[in-house]
Amino acid sequence: MRQNGNRIKNFVLDLVFPMKCIYCSLEGDWLCNKCLDLVKRDNYNLCPICEVENSNGAVCGFCRKNSNLDGLMVVLENSQLNQKIIHLVKYNFITELLNYIKPKIFSCINNNPNWRDYFVLVPVPLHRRRFLERGFNQSEIISNIIGEVKGNIINNQLLAKVKYHRHQVGLNAKQRKLNIVDSFAVNDRCLVDFNKTLVIVDDVYTTGSTMEECAKTLKEYGYQKVWGLVLIKG
Ligand SMILES: [Zn+2]
Ligand SMILES: [Zn+2]
């Protein structure tokens, strides 16, 4: 009965809001096959701080003193389409789009020579208030998808967001850093083995202030190896 109800609801929704490709407006799907083909992986490994190319995205020797992060893995190229997908997930709540690009994410992770099954994924947490506003944490959804590839453990409790702050969008690098300082804390009831490599997962890396703040919090607590992973680097 319930299934029937859903089917009727979807049928009515389709009539009122026919599903259209977010990129070319072709009716029938959120992302048509032709546009899905345009979702490409990121082909560059750079030091995330100075952006000099290297073999694996590790923070280079020169930038080590300025960063708590050991390196950054980037899944998708910074294209207009990929930006649009993430925007629609975050602000229009079309989380289904992440399912469409799941095979792309899988192949990127499988082709990434850095990837190890013993990495523990730590999604960037949302403040409880922001979580209630949005209803989901996109970093958690992304972590769950990535974790599926090699069965990585996901710890969505290790980091907590203890300070509510305004959106980072529209702020410059210095303002972003100030806005997010002391925002995170380690939850000592959900610790992970200190020898594990933690991978902080987020949707976008722009100036790196969120990622750096998370890495700083984890390193100050005693974790030794902290990498980042994002879908795109702005
Ligand atoms: Zn399309
Ligand atoms: Zn560097």
Give a nutshell description of this structure:
The protein has 234 residues and is an alpha/beta fold. The protein contains nine helices and seven strands, in the order H-H-E-H-H-H-E-H-H-E-E-H-E-E-H-E.
What does this structure look like?
InterPro entries: ComF/GntX_DNA_util-trans, DZR_2, PRTase-like, PRTase_dom. Residues 12-64 form the Double zinc ribbon domain. Pfam families: DZR_2 (PF18912). Helix content is 37%, strand content 15%. It is of the alpha/beta class. It has two domains: 1-37, no CATH class; 39-233, Rossmann fold. A five-stranded parallel sheet has the order 1-7-6-2-3, with helices on both faces. The protein has a two-stranded antiparallel ribbon with strand order 4-5. It is globular and about 55 Å long. Residues 47, 49-50, 52, 60, 62-63 line the site of one zinc ion.
| Distance, first to last CA | 46 Å
- Tally of distinct domains: 2
Query: Beta-strand level of the residues, as a percent range?
Result: 5-15%
Determine the number of helices (DSSP H or I, runs of at least 4 residues): 9
Order of strands in the sheet with most strands: 1-7-6-2-3
- So what's the CATH class of the largest domain? Alpha Beta
Anisotropy-based shape: globular
Order of helices and strands: HHEHHHEHHEEHEEHE
Total number of β-strand segments?
Answer: 7
What is the subunit arrangement here? single chain
Corresponding CATH architecture of the largest domain: 3-Layer(aba) Sandwich
Mean pLDDT: 91
The major sheet is characterized as: 5 strands, parallel
